[in-house]
């Protein structure tokens, strides 16, 4: 018995460590992508058949991008996050400027709806360089915050790191006329710095100043609209006016928003049924893109929209769990940046569709049609899963 007790004491209570893997996060992402397939086909089948003679045109493109995205996710899951830390910071910011500079090259950029967002080089699929830039910015600021953490309690320490992203955002808008992407690229590092900064009062003042500035701009536009005939050369001002009174500009800038609101209102609690949307037939142009949430509401109702938002909430929660349990600040900042990117785009997209904010082109992660978008979002999830694998848990 004594010999047996010694064996139990020596080996029975010995615990080994194993790498953590967040299967819940992966399962939620797979569900979102599959749900996106269903909604893209439902929203685009009619128009795809008319324009391309193939009702599965957009679904096929999204499927190919998703397959490549999951392959990339699998590869990045097994690449240690410290690899990104070994690359100098300037490489990431230089690559971001270089990618956006491609939009200045004649013959390879594609302009649509007043914005130059896409690159098409020969037989290669077109891609949106700003989506890659968002990932580069996340890694750049994860490194910057890790190195400058001790300085984050001073005004200089908070503002100096933001200079590169401000310059990049101005450049993005200059070359692409894409205000929404420039805004997202700016918000991501501000959120990352807000989380790690020691002096919360200064961060609060920064956000308050940004909100007051936005309010002043909107106030000026309102006053000009109030004492003018309402005709403006700038389509961005027109979008703001359409946000305030969509019915007044229902034949122009307010048309998309009005149709989206009609779709949401007509869906009721449980929707009209999958494939039964009316506005997707022609009232909402390219319904499979930025306005796909309105089709979800029309066909699946408030219940379907709630389930979709719940999936996003679970995804963000799982990212919080990974960020909160990793012991390395760089790894935590990587996941916080990814979390911020996904959360900001979800909030902005739903806010636009519900007319809570002015109309701007922001896709709904994993749901909206867009090959570059789904590819890069899956890549970000792969990096988050790789960070999760650095967490060691007891093997029982």
Please supply descriptive tags for the structure shown above.
396 residues, mainly alpha, two-stranded antiparallel ribbon, 15 helices
Protein architecture, described:
The protein is mainly alpha-helical and 396 residues long. 67% of the residues lie in helices and 4% in strands. It has 15 helices and four strands. Strands 1-4 form a two-stranded antiparallel ribbon. Strands 2-3 form a two-stranded antiparallel ribbon. A hairpin with a 2-residue loop joins strand 2 (109-112) and strand 3 (115-119). Helix 6 packs parallel to helix 15 (371-389). It starts with a helix and ends with a strand. The model has no long low-confidence stretch (mean pLDDT 81).
Backbone shape:
globular
Q: What is the CA–CA distance across the termini?
A: 25 Å
| Overall radius of gyration | 23 Å
Number of separate helices: 15
Main β sheet profile: 2 strands, antiparallel
* Structural class by secondary-structure content: mainly alpha
What share of residues are in beta strands?
Answer: under 5%
In the sheet with the most strands, the strands line up as 1-4
